Amino acid sequence: MKLGAFILLIPTTMALLGVSSVQTWLASFQQPLKDLIENPFRRSTVPQFILDARHPWILANQRKLERLPNAEAFLCSGPDPESNETGIETKNGGEGLEIPLDIFDYLEIDNNRAGISRPGWPNALERLGEINRCQRALTQAKTMEVGIYVHDGKYSDQYLKILEPPKPPEQLLTLFGDVLESMMNLETLKWDIRKEDTHIFEEAFKSRNLTLPSIKHLEPGPSSHYLVGMCPNLERLKNGGGFMWYHGYMPDNRDWGLMLIQAAVSTPKLKRFSMSGGHSGWTPSLISEVIKSMPQIESLGLFGSLGREIDYTGVNTGDTGRLKAVLDMLTGFENLTHLALPPSSSLGLGFNGGPGCGNVYFGKEGRIYLRQVTKEGAEATEEGGNIVVANLPHLASFTIGGTKANITRTEDGTIHATWPWTGRMDEWLMEEVPVGF
Ligand SMILES: *[C@@H]1O[C@H](CO)[C@@H](O)[C@H](O)[C@H]1NC(C)=O
Ligand SMILES: *[C@@H]1O[C@H](CO)[C@@H](O)[C@H](O)[C@H]1NC(C)=O
Ligand SMILES: *[C@@H]1O[C@H](CO)[C@@H](O)[C@H](O)[C@H]1NC(C)=O
Ligand SMILES: *[C@@H]1O[C@H](CO)[C@@H](O)[C@H](O)[C@H]1NC(C)=O
Asked: Which N-terminal stretch is annotated as signal sequence (predicted)?
């Protein structure tokens, strides 16, 4: 019992020593953290970037892998997996471990998800260093998600704040360029670096003439539109950055939505574009920029709101004509076959979404009220759908608020859009807002 308690104390004591020595070390040399960021005692011999990717096979076999003399070498080197099409590979000394061919398909550099508590720049430097040493990861990576949260705000943990250099270290800029350039099969890149810092990467990447010809799908966050010009074979472009896309302004008030649209002029192969309108929503001038910049696209997603988001008033103000005006502009796309629109409450059709405050939906009366609001939303979606088919009859498909319309064409040439609730509204409402909700 006493011995047990003592053993339990050892890691705690050592953790404190370890952490403070790391702090001193980092503060004085601004070096990346070595092994002590997360768990100073039982650091896995499997490189952290592989654990971070959470491939189910790695999670299931982590203990076995850790018993190998050199887990990193086992996972990162080895025969070219493309030489066999069995999907698995057996190697000597691997305790019968068969490495699936897709373990490096998805990689992330992310200190900003649940369960991870690491400083942003040092974590990125560490993970990229590991990836750069792992030839198989460089060769096989198909998707990379970058999300760097810099712990320097007033809500950041003091411990992480001390470990966080205010600006990305020089080696990080070089290493990012090296790694991206080496990933010959990388198709999808999600890039979420805060808008105040991302220009530092822009300068570094531009000065080395970085081009990423394998990238087909890009999701850059605010003010990271410079990546578009580095991906000459881009087919899909979407805004990244999550809710940061709506958050704050650039010091000089430049509109990163507009800049993303204009950047697409350099990507003749672009087929799909989608973006959230941001602060002012989709204005006619923003839409005309899309038409100018990428007239060839086949799929367009207009998310956010058509025009400024209107606050709930409880009064249906009727159709503002905004949707029709937008659709009229979209006839300028010669080859558009798919359109995604925001929910009916953001289309300027009069329905403005019901009260945002959840209390009114509580209890039996609340559920009846929620069904009423849901019904009004569905009816506004129908109204919007009718305007869409009347104005863009050649569309192969479209969605409103993520719900796909069922387009039917009759022999006499009339077109109808029907919805999951068409002809069964009451039944559908009971499914959407069940009694026990
Ligand atoms: C590929 O598979 C064949 C037969 O399935 C086997 O003989 C060969 O050794 C494998 N090559 C590698 C590199 O694993
Ligand atoms: C990048 O491209 C420019 C113009 O083509 C050239 O002058 C410059 O030397 C290149 N820089 C590098 C690092 O290759
Ligand atoms: C639309 O598609 C046709 C056929 O692929 C192509 O010739 C035409 O250039 C496209 N239009 C635009 C604006 O790219
Ligand atoms: C689409 O509508 C047609 C005609 O009303 C119907 O037969 C078909 O089942 C619908 N499809 C879906 C996926 O709802």
From this structure: 1-15
Residues of the chain with pLDDT under 50: 1-14, 16-18, 20-40, 85, 90, 92
Q: Output the ligand 1 site: residues, CB below 6 A.
A: 79, 83-84, 89
Question: 279 and 174, same structural domain?
Answer: no
Ligand 3: nearest atom to the Cα of 295: 13
| Contact predicate 144/188, CB 8 Å | yes
Q: Any bridge partners for residue 400, and if so which?
A: 341, 403
Quote the pLDDT of residue 41: 53
pTM: 0.84
**CA 305 to ligand 3 center in whole angstroms:** 29
CB 61 within 8 A of CB 99: no
Per-residue pLDDT tens over the stretch 329-382: 999 999 999 999 999 999 999 998 888 777 888 888 899 999 999 999 999 999
| Domain span holding position 343 | 271-437
Where does a domain end: 145, 166, 186? 186
Closest ligand to 82 CA? 1
Residue 226 lies in a domain: no
Last residue of a domain, one of 186, 216, 251: 186
**Ligand 3, CB cutoff 6 Å, lining residues:** 295-296, 334-335
Q: Say if residue 181 is in the same domain as residue 301.
A: no
**Domain assignment present for 193:** no
Q: Measure Cα distances from 234 to 206, 214, 257 in Å.
A: 18, 8, 18
Counting from 1 in the atom list of ligand 2, the atom nearest the Cα of 209 is 1
Q: Dihedral sign, CA of 162, 166, 171, 175?
A: positive
